[in-house]
Amino acid sequence: MRIGIFAKTFRRDSLAGVLDVVRAHGFASVQFNMACAGMASMPERADAGVAAAVKREADARGIRLEAVSGTFNMAHPDPAVRAEGLRRLAHLAAMCGEMGVGIVTIGSGSRNPDDMWAPHPDNGGAEAWRDLLACMERALAVAERRGVVLALEPEAANVANDARAARRVLDAMGSPLLRIVFDAANLVIGRARASWAGVLEEAAELLGRDIVLAHAKDVRAMDARGEGEGGGSPFAAVGRGDLDFAGYFRLLRSAGFDGPVVMHGLEEQDAAAGLAHLQRALS
User: How does pLDDT run across 136-155, given as a tens digit for each residue?
Assistant: First the structure.
């Protein structure tokens, strides 16, 4: 496994500046975001010149572009919003060949019309699932045209909110172009710490053969109020939460995964310590 980071962790005024600081922090692997190249994360148009520049600048620094972020709300209640997301996904996918990127990460979305990362009581309903699967089918048609893989990340507040739900999406689509982003923190958040190992083992059994990318962010055990112990968000910078990363890496290996592990959910000042923590866990 190789450890990378979200390129968007580092905020600079230019693509070269972002990639310089990525390399300066010891990373040779990133999940890219088009915002780092001065575009919208989901671009309004395809730009071959920008795509070529991304590859050229990454290659010049020996940085591997593991994936590009392509998340939009695939379960939004407004079909026009879903259609706009698909249109932008097509622009992004059109740039992937020139960038040398084969994986586009996606999320299942939420019925919440204002925030796809916020929960909604209708997320488990038949209409949400119908719209998600219809949108996913169209997204996979884009992936097939452009020769990319879509990697779905289960998120606690989304329609595909756990490993079983993600497996349901995979089975419904039946496409080799739909795979999984495995993020341990997403799968255990909100659960009692004593259950974490079992939750992750079940998730690896359900999803292991389809993992193409792993994420590394940390999470704190929950208190009785549903907050991270000590208050505030349950998510934490790598090494500052309660996730057993050595066990996480063993689980990924046992599932047959030996690919990129991308760190995120932290600020720039935490990147060096996070990398060191993950390197110790891997060893």
Answer: 999 999 999 999 999 999 99
pLDDT tens by residue, 233-270: 788 999 999 999 999 999 999 999 999 999 999 999 99
Q: Phi/psi of residue 149, each to 5°?
A: -105, 140
Concatenated DSSP letters of 55-69: HHHHHHTT-EEEEEE
With H, G, I as helix, E, B as strand and everything else as coil, classify residue 220. Answer: coil
> Which amino acid is located at 32 in the chain?
F
Domain boundaries of the chain, sorted by first residue? 2-282
Question: Which helix H or strand E contains 200, and what residues bound it?
Answer: helix 196-207
Question: Quick one: CATH architecture of 2-282?
Answer: Alpha-Beta Barrel (3.20)
Name which of 74, 59, 66, 53 is nearest 23 in CA terms: 59
Specify the pTM: 0.95
Pair 241, 188: CB distance under 8 Å: no
Does residue 135 contact residue 75 with C-beta atoms inside 8 Å? yes
